[in-house]
Structure formats: structure tokens, C-alpha cells
Write a structure and sequence with these properties.
The protein has 334 residues and is an alpha+beta fold. The protein has helices spanning 9-23, 76-88, 104-113, 187-204, 319-332, and strands at 28-35, 46-54, 61-67, 93-98, 117-124, 129-130, 134-136, 139-152, 157-158, 174-178, 185-186, 212-219, 226-230, 233-262, 270-279, 282-292, 298-306, 315-316. The chain has 5 helices and 18 strands. The strands form 2 sheets. It has a 15-stranded mixed β-sheet that branches. It has a 3-stranded antiparallel β-sheet with strand order 6-7-18, with helices on one face.
Length: 334
């Protein structure tokens, strides 16, 4: 086991919940839940890191997940507190999660209790790989296109002529709406949406737009109406040609990889890659979860991301493919 001090217990809690959900997709998983103490309605509710509910009423079972909040093994007193909480809230199972493993005293006592208690360890890996099964780059790539409007027009066509000809507007003025929406947007906002749609379309065709290019773009009412508002009156835009310079910035966000083990069970239950970073002064986070299928192959079981719409993680069964990808990525960013 390696250094896990940098991984906060909040992240461990989130990852544990995501892993448990990937292992039992039909279960309902909730974070930071307060459950009532059975038979004592006047007593304060007990806080549980994660609550997992399986099945449907009246045959539901409940597991609580408790995460060790220190960069050390939980001691027997902490374990007794978790087990007591499980009984007080009427849960049928206790899942303990640690990044440091467990002392022999807890392992022995959990074995005596039986399958009601599961001891899980989130082991940090030196490299993001599962030998013989999968190799991954040590970072995810976040690509964001940035643009500058070089030219607008000529031959702008509206469905009807405005009462005032030659109206001037600036790129930051929010004078456009799309469809039936009342959300006003600037010309920059509208262009940004068009570039995003183009990038998504190219990605679906497994093509990537070049990092820098000049785009000749015509905005207007095609599948969805585009309106420009002049002195409070909307006019449908039929054709708004422009030239836009697009340059994609690429950020490499380092990942930390973990294996999810359970005491008394041989092998790895799941593998997870956690990426945490800041782009444009905004925090982003991504979690990829892998687990073995029935044929023993490792496949993506879950992806969770916040603060970002798209990132790329290079994964291959061949080390050379990942090494070539890393080398090319480093060259492209020099």
C-alpha cells in the first residue's frame, strides 16, 4: 500500500459509494444519511457515511458504509462504534472502508461475526494499471475550444426587416434567444454552443477537430429558431454568417489509481481512477470504475464527473499503446 494521505476521506466516501453502486447496479445509494435509532424515536438520528438499500419493500435490506477518516488503520474501538451503529439503525450489513487496511484484532472479530460485516480496503497503486489486464495513462486530458470572432456578415438575413436599420450590437450583448427559451445569450454564447455541437458530432464519428482552425459558420433558424431582439421585439435570424478562429487548449489532469479489496476474498473487486484538478479556476473531478466481466476482462462499470462535460482517459491492454499516447501528448503540449 502506498501513500494515501493526499486522498481526503470525503473522496474515499464518494469513491466507495460509486464502487458499491457499480458492484450492485440495482441498489439505491445515498450519501451522508441520518437514520433513526430503532425503538427510540426520541433519540437523535445517527449519521451514516453511505446507505445502500437493496431490493423492494417489504423485502428490503440495508447496508451502511463507514469510512476511516484518518491516515491510519481503524482501531478496535472505532470498529465497535460502527458495528453498534449498524445494530441501532436496523441495518443488516456493515461495510467498512479503509485506505490503510485493518489490524488483526478487527479482522478476527469480523470473521467471528460473519458475512454481516465486510472489510474493504482502497489500495493506492504506484501506476494506473492492472498487470496483464489493463494499462492506463497517468492523466486524463481535458480539451476546451476557445474562439475569437474574426468577421460577422455580410449578407445577414432576418425573416422580416427591423423597423430600425443598421442596429449595432457588441459580442457581449445578450440579445439572442434560442427556440422558446427566454434565456438571453450573447453572440459569443451562441457561437460557443455551435462549436460544442460540432465537436460532439466529430467525436461521435471518431474524428477529432484540429487543435487550431478557422471556422466559417452560418448561424440561423434551422432545426431550432434563433432570434435577435431589437428594441424589445424578436426577429427570426435566417442567416448570420461569420468567421471564427478556434484554438483548443489541452490540460493534463493527473490521476490516482486504486484497487478495491475485500478481506477473505481473493483478487480485486474493482479498480478506480480518480482525477482531481482545476481548469480556468474551476475545480473538476472525474472517477472511472472498472470491474471484471464474466469472461474475466476489465470493463468500465461507471463514470462520474463534476465540473466538466468531457475528458479522455487512454486505456489499453497493451503497454506500448499507452506509452506512445503519453509520448505524443507530451510532445503536443511542449
Amino acid at each position: 500500500m502506498n501513500n494515501s494521505k493526499s486522498l481526503s476521506w470525503q473522496i474515499v466516501e464518494e469513491v466507495a459509494a460509486l464502487l458499491e453502486k457499480s458492484l450492485t447496479p440495482s441498489a439505491e445509494v445515498k450519501h451522508n444519511v441520518r437514520l433513526p435509532v430503532i425503538g427510540k424515536p426520541g433519540r437523535r438520528k445517527r449519521q451514516c457515511d453511505v446507505v445502500i438499500t437493496y431490493g423492494t419493500p417489504p423485502r428490503q435490506t440495508v447496508s451502511i458504509v463507514e469510512v476511516q477518516r484518518r491516515a491510519s488503520k481503524p482501531n478496535i474501538t472505532i470498529f465497535h462504534g460502527w458495528y453498534q451503529k449498524m445494530k441501532e439503525v436496523g441495518a443488516q450489513h456493515l461495510i467498512c472502508v479503509s485506505t490503510r487496511g485493518y489490524p488483526q484484532s478487527i479482522i478476527d472479530e469480523a470473521a467471528d461475526i460473519g458475512p454481516t460485516v465486510k472489510l474493504l480496503t482502497l489500495d493506492e497503486l504506484r501506476k494506473p494499471e492492472v498487470p496483464g489486464l489493463i494499462f492506463a495513462a497517468p492523466f486524463v486530458l481535458h480539451k476546451k475550444p476557445r474562439f475569437a470572432i474574426k468577421e460577422v456578415g455580410p449578407n445577414i438575413r432576418l425573416e422580416e426587416t427591423p423597423e430600425e436599420i443598421g442596429v449595432e450590437f457588441h459580442s457581449s450583448n445578450k440579445v439572442f434567444t434560442i427556440g422558446d427559451s427566454s434565456d438571453f445569450k450573447s453572440i459569443g454564447d451562441v457561437v460557443s454552443l455551435a462549436i460544442r455541437d460540432l465537436s460532439n458530432e466529430l467525436s461521435q464519428r471518431q474524428e477529432g477537430p484540429p487543435d487550431s482552425y478557422l471556422l466559417e459558420l452560418t448561424l440561423g433558424s434551422v432545426d431550432t429558431d434563433l432570434w435577435i431582439h431589437i428594441k424589445g421585439k424578436p426577429y427570426k435570424v435566417m442567416s448570420l454568417p461569420m468567421k471564427v478562429s478556434v484554438k483548443t487548449t489541452v490540460s493534463r489532469i493527473p490521476i490516482t489509481a486504486f484497487e478495491y479489496h475485500q478481506e477473505s476474498i481473493e483478487g480485486v473487486l474493482a479498480w478506480v481512477a480518480v482525477a482531481e484538478g482545476v481548469v480556468d479556476d474551476k475545480p473538476i473531478s472525474v472517477r472511472f470504475v472498472f470491474k471484471k466481466d464474466d469472461e474475466g476482462l476489465l470493463r468500465i462499470a461507471a463514470v462520474h464527473q463534476e465540473g466538466v462535460s468531457s475528458v479522455g482517459l487512454m486505456v489499453s491492454t497493451e503497454r506500448s499503446v499507452v506509452e506512445d499516447y503519453i509520448r505524443k501528448s507530451l510532445q503536443d503540449n511542449q
